[in-house]
């Protein structure tokens, strides 16, 4: 309970990906994007989980990975698998709902190569765009389970 006048706590905590093979996807994000384990693996089940998820007999396994470039414990990418999973339709960049995860990287082409070697795919072409005082390079890719990832790199340009 908050004391009167205290500001409520709001902070981004995590994004969850439900994976057919959570172990493989966890390895992918560690290898390609330098996400780090924070020691929070999950093997969850019980009445409380059934009530939370609205599923009977729910069982979740997976792990929280700290996203690069931030603190040592948040925000995280939570990658889980359920024993019983519903299939999802084709994911596209213009689908409603959460569309993609974006990572800023030093070199888009080099990171795309790492994505491909680690079992991911390329969705679109590598493009460059000019902004006032900056040049950006972008590409959409997919992780091994088809979740869309945006790779982006930003460089200052001469403003003369």
From TrEMBL:
One of its GO terms (biological process) is L-methylmalonyl-CoA metabolic process. Residues 11-154 form the VOC domain. It comes from Papillibacter cinnamivorans DSM 12816. Keywords: Metal-binding. SUPFAM superfamilies: Glyoxalase/Bleomycin resistance protein/Dihydroxybiphenyl dioxygenase. InterPro entries: Glyas_Bleomycin-R_OHBP_Dase, Glyas_Fos-R_dOase_dom, MMCE/EMCE_epimerase, VOC_core. This is VOC domain-containing protein. GO terms for molecular function: metal ion binding; methylmalonyl-CoA epimerase activity. Transmembrane segments: none annotated. The keyword Acyltransferase does not apply.
């Amino acid at each position: 309970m908050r004391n009167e006048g205290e500001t409520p706590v709001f902070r981004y905590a995590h994004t969850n990906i439900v994976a057919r093979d959570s172990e493989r996807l966890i390895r992918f994000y560690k290898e390609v994007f330098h996400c780090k384990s924070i020691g929070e693996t999950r093997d969850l089940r019980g009445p409380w989980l059934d009530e939370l998820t609205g599923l009977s007999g729910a069982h979740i396994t997976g792990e929280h990975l700290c996203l690069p470039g931030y603190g040592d414990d948040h925000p995280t990418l939570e990658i889980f698998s359920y024993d019983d999973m519903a299939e999802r339709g084709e994911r596209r960049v213009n689908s409603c709902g959460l569309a993609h995860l974006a990572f800023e990287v030093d070199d888009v082409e080099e990171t795309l190569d790492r994505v491909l070697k680690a079992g991911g795919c390329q969705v679109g072409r590598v493009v460059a765009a000019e902004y006032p005082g900056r040049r950006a390079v972008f590409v959409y890719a997919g992780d091994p389970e088809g979740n869309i990832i945006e790779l982006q790199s930003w460089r200052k340009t001469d403003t003369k």
